[in-house]
């Protein structure tokens, strides 16, 4: 999933941008999207544990069905590990055209209710329904209708979170998965967050949770008890986000249209990785998905940037620019792999890898795009 955005400063619970008051925000997250599309399109796969990804020794799981997750199979897991956990696991090669088509259908459903849609990836998005197009007025009712319409038109299930800011809506969408919904009403945010394990906070992975546990932080309440200086000392730039999140605060608006500055994607791992072969295989998967987004948005850029976050939350980036726009996927791949090789061997394992194309050429006739077309790579 994408890295959480942070915002400095303090504000009261539920406050959005100055003068705008509380918003009605829905976060819709498709259930095991890639795997569910495969099961929908191939009846023989229904009810069986499947993994989307390569099955070879260097393969990586891109997505796992809920039947596979019961055995502990997770995205970004090496395929050999996944097969060891689930000997009957069925591997399926990805079909991005099918996922894109389903995503387009879902996006059209969103836009029937509101123009304020901020996609995070093919399978999830934020919606601001404070002023909905149909005059329904209830965000909870809108979320119910959207889920029903998605199921009727795509034969896929979605989970939704409803609240007054993006952070809480995203947490809520994960509360009753799969095929569920959760509502966090005004005034309930801080209390709701207080009872959650910190692992549920977007951006906190297994290693981060382990580090927090050593510092006596296991729940949102534990996190809220720490002052900002303590958090900054131990978590650097991630501290401001943690401070706000522990109080149910998120000032970010839903942004449907922004000038695009980059196109990219990133993957947060369930298990940290450090070996060269695993890193190269993961990078190849990210290149495939990001290049698909580059082609879909007709983006042309001159700078390729590799991002990696270590187990201690320290972030490094490596970039390379070329005189003219990257000519094609082969050049994009070569630049990305060159950046990775420059960093090897790593001083410690990483929990996240990302790749972006920036220094984009502007098309004056193109419609406004999101500032960062960042894909969550499951």
Termini distance?
6 Å
Oligomer: single chain
The shape, in one word, is globular
Helix count from the secondary structure assignment: 13
The low-confidence runs, each spanning 5 or more residues with pLDDT under 50, are 1-20, 363-378
Question: How many strands, what sense, and barrel or not for the largest sheet?
Answer: 5 strands, mixed
What's the order of the H and E elements? EHEEHHEHEEHEHEHHHHHEHEEHEE
Strand content: 15-25%
Helix content: 25-40%
Average of the residue pLDDT scores: 86
Whole-angstrom Rg: 20 Å
Helix/strand class: alpha+beta
Strand order of the largest sheet: 5-6-1-7-8
How many beta strands in the DSSP annotation?
Answer: 13
Description:
The protein has helices at 33-41, 66-69, 79-85, 96-113, 139-154, 166-173, 189-194, 206-214, 220-224, 228-235, 239-245, 276-296, 329-343; strands at 25-30, 50-53, 61-64, 90-92, 117-121, 124-128, 158-163, 181-183, 262-273, 301-310, 315-321, 350-360, 372-376. The protein is α+β, with helices and mostly antiparallel strands and 378 residues long. A five-stranded mixed β-sheet has the order 5-6-1-7-8. The protein has a five-stranded mixed β-sheet with strand order 11-10-12-9-13, covered by helices on one side. Helix 4 (96-113) packs antiparallel against helix 5. It starts with 24 loop residues before the first strand and ends with a strand.
